[in-house]
Amino acid sequence: MQIQRVYIYITIVFGENMNIKIDIISGFLGAGKTTLLKKLLEGELKKERLAIIENEFGEVSIDGDLLKGTNIDIKEISSGCICCSLEGDFKEAIKEIIKIYHPTRILIEPSGVSKLSDIIKSCKSIDGIEVNNIFTVIDALNFKSHLDNFGEFYKDQIINAKTIILSERKSDEDKLIVSISQAIRKINKKCSIITAPLKEIDSKDILAIAKKDLEMISENYIEFKKSFNSMSVSRVRHAHNADNIFNTWGVETSKDFSMFKLRDIFDEIMKSDEYGNIIRGKGIVKTNNGEWIEFHYTPGRFKINPTTTQGIGKIAIIGEKIDKNKLNRLFA
Predict the structure, then answer these.
(1) Which end of the chain is more exposed for a tag (fewer CB within 10 A), N or C?
(2) In total, how many domains does the chain have?
(3) Torsion of CA 286, 287, 288, 289, to 10 degrees
(4) Is residue 311 situated within a structural domain?
(5) Are 113 and 251 members of one domain?
(6) pLDDT at residue 42 in the model
(7) What percent of the chain is modeled with pLDDT above 70?
(8) Which helix (H) or strand (E) segment is 189 a member of?
(9) pLDDT tens digit string along 256-300?
(10) How far is the C-alpha of 153 from the C-alpha of 240, rounded, in Å?
């Protein structure tokens, strides 16, 4: 049985009273949901009083640690799959958050294998809230593979999004981005598609795009230009079986890792199938020179960034037919 954690993050910033909005940030495993969430928190939304519900799929919690540097108090409210608790604890938790903290906006980041349609349906059934922005973040590099292999979860996140953001793209991938945008448009004809890299967009522009009623716009593309950067927006029964499809392996560790060692480990994971079909890896560990880093792996990509000091290192792996014994040895 996999463990999924639901956390509440309450910002200490007070905003004006208004109708309570719910924004949902969905996306498949490793797409960049937490990156988008941090960008929004550090930008326009920091002016509001926020509550954030985050659900992780796996045996150890990492994303919560990555958000600790954003002036947020962390409160754990329940455990279990956010998708499977929509009719129970999840809805009651939202009502309790509203009663106690009076947020102006609630942000929900479900796990990468949650069904977006079920989350939207449940949120709409709660009195006193308005489902507002619905984002889906898509990993451009692995779009075709995920669409082919995980259609049930993947297509649901595309069909029900209002705004889709293509993450992890490079400047020389224009043909690939056009192809992906066309494929998305066949699945969802009404969403906006943001094709610029997340690092080149600020939160004000993302929220401005998300609020636009694209049905009222006759042009096929809207261009936003800032200094030397630009981005294009193209107008272009409950079945949650994640535990039956995906396996997880996780560990808390006090071991130090060199960045070269980590790269070698994930090179080995990418080249060999003896560890299983690994589709997501992430962690926070201490390096052999005393610094703390966070790392993120999806097939074909491995990134390392500095992070804040932690109490203990954590590593999480998600995939299919994972061999936990071999992973234990690999990270030993």
Answers:
(1) N
(2) 2
(3) -100
(4) yes
(5) no
(6) 82
(7) 73
(8) none
(9) 999 999 999 999 999 998 999 998 898 999 998 999 999 999 888
(10) 9
Instruction: Answer yes or no: is 141 within a domain.
Output: yes
Q: How many residues appear in the chain?
A: 332
Please name the amino acid found at residue 306: P
Q: What is the pLDDT of residues 150-185, one digit of tens each?
A: 877 799 999 999 999 998 666 567 788 889 999 999
Let me know if 296 is exposed, middle or buried by CB neighbors in 10 A (0-12, 13-18, 19+). Answer: buried
Whether 8 maps to a domain, the answer reads yes
**Do residue 196 and residue 317 come from a single domain?**
no
Task: Tell me which of 110 and 85 has the higher pLDDT.
Answer: 110
Instruction: Specify whether the CB–CB gap between 136 and 165 falls below 8 A.
Output: yes
Q: Which residue has tokens 């150890």?
A: 60
Tokens of 158: 């595309």
Tell me, what CATH number does 45's domain have? Answer: 3.40.50.300
The one-letter amino acid at 206: I
**Rg, the chain, Cα only:** 19
The residue range of the domain holding 309 is 246-330
240 occurs within a structural domain? no
- CA 60, 63, 68, 73 dihedral sign is negative
- Name the token pair of 222: 């809207």
Name the token pair of 175.
Answer: 């043909």
- Give 224 or 197, the one with higher predicted confidence: 197
**Distance, CA of 233 to CA of 224 (rounded, Å):** 8
Q: Write down the pLDDT at residue 12.
A: 46
